[in-house]
Each structure stands twice: as structure tokens, then as C-alpha cells.
Amino acid sequence: MTEYWFARRFPVGHPRSAMAPVTREGRMAFVWFLGAMLAGAVIWAILVLTAKATGAIIGGIVFIVATAFAMWRLLSAVVRHGDRNHTVEDYRAGRLGGRR
């Protein structure tokens, strides 16, 4: 059985299928995503301040690519390590392992 990093936010049968982290690894996946976005934004700002018009275009492309790659990594982690049969509340209540 694989270790789950994410679990459903809403019970099975609910129309929304949002997932939330239940382990340290799951939370770190979100931190990695936010860090990649921030790094892309900083590179964009530096390029705008130093290279003017072309820097804005290149910086925008860098930001979009960094964000898209980080989002792909996050979503693939949710798909690979997501528990679609149990909710975050199940993990918090101790009915299942995984809360670290």
C-alpha cells in the first residue's frame, strides 16, 4: 500500500473532490509550489528592473514556465499520493495513520 500525503477535503459522494495535505510531505509539496512561483516572480522583477521591455517579456515567460512546472509537480503528487476514499478529518481524528 502506498503512503498517502493528501486526502479528500469533503466526504466521498460530495460533488467537490478537493484534496488537502495530511503529512509533512504533502505540506512540503505546497511549499515547493509556492517557492517556485516566488522564485519566478523575483526573476521577473529583476529582469524588468535591469533589462526594461525585453526583460518584462522574458521574465513573464520565466514566471509562467516556473509556475506551470511547479503546478504539474504538485498535481502529479496529489494524483500519486492522494487518498480518494478517506477525508482529512479521518486522519485528524486518528482513524488512519499519516499525520506527521
Give a quick set of tags describing it.
100 residues, alpha+beta, three-stranded mixed sheet, 2 helices, 12% strand
Description:
The protein has 100 residues and is an alpha+beta fold. It has two helices and three strands. A three-stranded mixed sheet has the order 2-1-3. The longest helix has 58 residues, at 24-81. The two termini are 18 Å apart.
| Structural class by helix and strand composition | alpha+beta
Low-confidence parts lasting 5 or more residues at pLDDT below 50? none
Which descriptor suits the 3D outline?
Answer: elongated
Radius of gyration: 18 Å
Major sheet strand order: 2-1-3
Question: In total, how many beta strands?
Answer: 3
Brief summary of the model shown:
This protein is α+β, with helices and mostly antiparallel strands. It contains two helices and three strands, in the order E-E-H-E-H.
